[in-house]
Specification:
Blueprint: E1 3-7, H1 12-23, E2 27-32, H2 39-51, E3 60-64, H3 70-82, E4 87-92, H4 99-104, H5 106-126, E5 131-137, H6 160-178, E6 184-190, E7 192-194, H7 213-221, E8 228-231, E9 243-244, E10 246-248, H8 249-265, E11 270-275, E12 281-282, H9 283-294, E13 300-303, E14 312-313, H10 318-323, H11 332-341
Parallel strand pairs: 1-2, 1-4, 2-3, 4-5, 5-6, 6-11, 7-10, 8-13, 9-14
Antiparallel strand pairs: 9-12
Helix pairs in contact: 1-2, 1-8, 3-5, 5-6, 9-11
Bound molecules: nicotinamide-adenine-dinucleotide.
The site of nicotinamide-adenine-dinucleotide has 29 residues, from helix 1, strand 2, helix 5, strand 5 and strand 7.
Length: 344
């Protein structure tokens, strides 16, 4: 079997996807700078496979490095070819993901997210590797009030992070047009990935002060934060709090494998797919479910709206459901329960 390169494969979504890939017998090489992860995740992934008696010999390689380092990326492709196992597909997770940080430090985001992608794509082309699944985001859309977003909805990111994702999508569109018989590209627009592997052996590793709801919920559950702040109680939604489309990270992981198979089994193409459940849940609903499911009680209070937030972001996921051999199977209760198992 040919090899897959997973950039940023030790991050939250990457590590869960690597686990699914290893389960399914894929051979993977991970490159990760560890700017938002740790070597411990690599060790955890190896351990889970050992517990399951899965033979990892030669199937899972980790290289610490930055995708902006051209020589390193070239070397990874060359070495794989020399071993007679060329990399034939890339899943490109690597990137910085904090909306707030991207507003404070846009140059860092453009440099890491866009220069890194250009570098990766040049090396892929030089090494005749034309399959790529790219981690895009629902932030590329211009939000619509109480309307679900499909892949043809207007694009219009509201922050530098979203602009870097859209720019990468445009670069991928251009290279596809330049050689439409070669490139197979899938732009996976994730909605809100949460949860963790149900074994409790892997999860999200929030480094620093998180900005997203679930990592904050976990800090509150651990007693590292005294209370939870809800940004706004007067949004035009059913209970006044924002509505999001939360998707279990293992469902998201499986979507990557389905997208990869789709690309390999079909003619070259560039396709954007929403990866969400199609169900909206409010922040208050999540908090209540999280408390009930985990038997935890903690205080929360309302603060003013946060810059850049939108009231309603829910995926119309019909295209992904129709094209991919994939369906999200885990619900909000699974997401709340699994996210905490990893902490115990
Ligand atoms: P993450 O931060 O947990 O994982 C990203 C990984 O990439 C980290 O391990 C980090 O160390 C690594 N990395 C960052 N820059 C790098 C570089 N220049 N070279 C090599 N490695 C680098 O993020 P995640 O939640 O796993 O998200 C994965 C991808 O999906 C990101 O591109 C993110 O923007 C995108 N995304 C995430 C979400 C989300 O809510 N988690 C939503 C939509 C899209």
């Amino acid at each position: 079997m040919k090899r897959i390169l997973a950039t940023g494969g030790l991050g939250f979504v990457g590590s869960h996807t690597c686990l699914s890939l290893l389960y399914q017998g894929y051979k993977i090489i991970v490159i990760d700078s560890l700017i938002n992860s740790s070597f411990e995740i690599y060790q955890k992934l190896k351990k889970i496979n050992e517990v399951l008696n899965l033979e990892l010999n030669n199937k899972f390689t980790f290289i610490k490095g930055d995708i902006r380092n051209s020589a390193l990326i070239e070397n990874i492709f060359q070495e794989a070819s020399m071993k007679d196992q060329p990399i034939n597909s890339v899943i490109h997770f690597a990137g910085l993901k904090s909306v707030n940080q991207s507003i404070l430090n846009p140059l860092q985001y453009w440099d890491s997210n866009v220069i890194g992608t250009i570098n990766l794509l040049k090396t892929m082309r030089n090494n005749q590797c034309f399959n790529i699944v790219f981690s895009s985001s629902a932030t590329v859309y211009k939000p619509k009030l109480n309307r679900m977003l499909d892949e043809n909805s207007d694009l219009g990111p509201m922050n530098p992070y979203g602009m870097t994702k859209l720019t990468n999508e445009k670069i991928l569109e251009d290279i596809f047009k330049s050689d439409p018989n070669k490139w197979s590209i899938s732009l996976l627009r994730y909605f809100n990935p949460v949860g963790a592997h149900s074994s409790g052996s892997l999860g999200e590793l929030p480094i620093g002060m998180p900005n997203n709801l679930f990592p904050i919920l976990m800090k509150v559950a651990l007693g590292e934060l005294d209370f939870l702040s809800i940004y706004g109680k007067d949004w035009p939604t059913k209970d006044g709090t924002c509505i999001r489309d939360f998707i279990h990270v293992m469902d998201l992981a499986e979507a990557h494998i389905a997208a990869l198979k789709f690309l390999i089994d079909n003619r070259p193409q560039n396709i954007a797919l929403n990866i969400g459940t199609g169900k909206g849940t409010s922040v208050l609903e999540i908090i209540k479910t999280f408390q009930e499911v985990n038997g935890i009680c903690f205080p929360y209070h309302f603060v003013k709206r946060r810059m850049g937030d939108q009231p309603f972001l829910v995926a119309d996921n019909k295209l992904a459901l129709s094209l991919l051999d994939w369906i999200p199977t885990r619900n909000i209760v699974d997401m709340c329960a699994d996210s905490v198992k990893n902490l115990i």
